[in-house]
From TrEMBL:
Stated name of the protein: Amidohydrolase family protein
UniProt entry keywords in alphabetical sequence: Signal
Keyword set includes Nucleotide-binding: no
Pfam annotation, one family: Amidohydro_1
Native organism taxonomy: Bacteria, Pseudomonadati, Pseudomonadota, Alphaproteobacteria, Sphingomonadales
Leader sequence segment: 1-22
Coiled coil: none
The keyword Transmembrane appears for this protein: no
Source organism per UniProt: Qipengyuania aurantiaca
SUPFAM superfamilies, per database record: Composite domain of metallo-dependent hydrolases (SSF51338), Metallo-dependent hydrolases (SSF51556)
Residue intervals of the Amidohydrolase-related domain: 373-467
InterPro entries, A to Z: Amidohydro-rel (IPR006680), Metal-dep_hydrolase_composite (IPR011059), Metal_Hydrolase (IPR032466), Metallo-dep_Hydrolase (IPR051781)
Length: 498
């Protein structure tokens, strides 16, 4: 049994004494640690976590087991939680693929659901499904640093088809019911774990797509098409709903009129498209908790999961804040990406003071409705939309957990959104989501208790993935690698421009 470790500063000690006859030889033992297990909602002090061949083989009272460990981590005064899972990321962008994965590992993210794992044409900036599968295999084999790529979705399916669209573009841009069925057939043949839909898809195409996906047993998730409500799409079998914009909308009197106007326009009636800029204020001014009930009930009844990605709504009202725009974490991003984000921020900051106030209020309603959804029994998963504007791979998952607590979840419940609930969604509760015998040894060792303050998930002493240990110094080395790669890439780009 060989255990790879990446350590220098943590107390990782090779055992040198001869094993007792009755002792079981194992790879790794994390000694005298407080175990926080979100799956069972427990917090138990004074435990030894025993790991062999990449899995947890025992969690016992400190010193009570007969184990001879090749390596030992002193967990005194520390806390171990399951590895964190980010259920909405974008790592398939070629220039930032490897750096994003390293940033996630350095921040305790050991598993992700990739929400754009395909390409329309091979020469685009987006990696194709086969390439993403190659990365997933390399990560599992330990040949590449990064979280496990636990689920791979398609690109967004919408109806924005150009007249000169290629065959691949047509597949991703259904315009009518026949196209919708063909899209499911074509994409299902590629073998993604999830078909992702956009809000900009025609009603007939979406309805047919959902029916065909249900017939084929294909999961569909993503954005709620603008002419349908959450109750509508949950009833059609939509698997996950992303982003905290549709639930507040459907909890307002403004929402039904907004969606109805879009549907009437698509049917050819002589009406104007609704003004999207009025949505935040319209939702705020007509918000009614009672209107949420049918949508929350539909999500629960149809087992529709919710990934609110609150971070994507934060940028809407903070784009003009100097401190926000000068986030120190920008140092890990290549200049090309920073420039793209800056352009997006500059477009957003053009909103009036009244619009910014409405966007801030809309964000608060997004948090409120997430709390309502959780209280109603909707299954909530933490996702960040990593690599969207001002959403930093790895780092931002901790910010999102903070928003979960602001939404009304307890710190333990917030941990569940990034551990045990995703494990349930993936159908892999035997592998992930807790700290117990039989689980894969994907763990985060913390210097402070996250059940007292969710911000303590940032106090990372070490990350264990499949039994492979990286201590704080090794994690810092990963961050340094990303910064160095950014400097080299920026220099190369500068030279190309000269």
């Amino acid at each position: 049994m060989k255990l790879r470790t990446f350590v220098s500063g943590l107390a990782l000690l090779a055992t040198v004494s001869a094993p007792a006859l009755a002792a079981e030889e194992v790879d790794l033992l994390i000694a005298n640690v407080t175990v926080i297990d979100p799956q069972h909602e427990t917090r138990i002090e004074g435990r030894d976590v025993v790991i062999d061949e990449g899995r947890i083989v025992a969690v016992v009272a400190t010193g009570s087991g007969e184990f001879e460990a090749h390596s030992r981590v002193d967990g005194s005064g520390k806390y171990v939680i399951p590895g964190l899972m980010d259920m909405h990321v974008h790592t398939s962008i070629r220039p930032v693929h490897e750096s994003s994965l390293k940033l996630m590992t350095a921040n305790g993210v050991t598993g992700v659901r990739e929400m754009g794992s395909d390409c329309v044409d091979p020469d685009t900036v987006y990696m194709c499904l086969g390439e993403m599968r190659e990365s997933a295999a390399k990560i599992e084999a330990g040949e590449m640093v990064g979280p496990r790529l636990l689920a791979l979705s398609t690109l967004k399916v919408d109806s924005n088809r150009r007249p000169d669209a290629s065959e691949g573009q047509i597949l991703y841009a259904p315009f009518n019911a026949e196209d919708g069925r063909a899209t499911v057939a074509g994409l299902a043949a590629r073998g993604p774990d999830l078909i992702k839909v956009s809000q900009e898809i025609h009603s007939d195409a979406f309805t047919a797509l959902m029916a065909e996906a249900e017939a084929r047993g294909v999961r569909v998730g993503g954005h709620v098409p603008m002419m349908f409500s959450i109750a509508d799409v949950a009833g059609m079998g939509m698997d996950t709903i992303e982003h905290a914009r549709d639930l507040p909308l459907d909890c307002s009197a403004f929402g039904s009129g907004f969606r109805d106007q879009i549907m009437r326009k698509l049917r050819g009636e002589d009406v104007a498209w609704p003004d999207r800029s009025k949505r935040p204020a319209g939702v705020r001014d007509s918000f009614d908790e009672a209107l949420c009930t049918p949508h929350l009930e539909a999500m629960v009844a149809n087992d529709t999961w919710y990934v609110p990605t609150h971070l994507t709504r934060e940028m809407d009202f903070r784009a003009g804040e100097e401190a926000y725009r000068k986030d120190a974490r920008l140092a890990y991003l290549v200049e090309m990406q920073v420039a793209d984000w800056t352009r997006d921020l500059d477009r957003t900051v053009q909103a009036s003071e009244e619009e910014v106030a409405a966007l801030s209020d809309f964000f608060d309603l997004a948090l409120k409705t997430t709390g309502m959804a959780h209280a109603a029994g909707v299954k909530i998963m933490a996702g960040t939309d990593a690599n969207d504007t001002m959403v930093f791979p790895g780092f931002s998952l901790h910010d999102e957990l903070g928003f979960m607590v602001r939404a009304g979840l307890t710190p333990m419940e917030a941990l569940q959104t990034a551990t045990s609930v995703p494990a349930q969604y993936l159908g892999r509760e035997g592998d992930f989501g807790g700290v117990s015998e039989g689980k894969l040894a994907d763990l985060v060792l913390l210097d402070a208790d996250p059940t007292l303050d969710i911000a303590n998930t940032k106090a990372i002493a070490a990350v264990v993935q499949g039994g492979v240990v990286r201590d704080r110094a090794a994690l810092d080395a990963l961050l340094a690698e990303v910064r160095e790669r950014k400097i080299a890439a920026d220099a190369q780009m500068s030279e190309a421009k000269e």
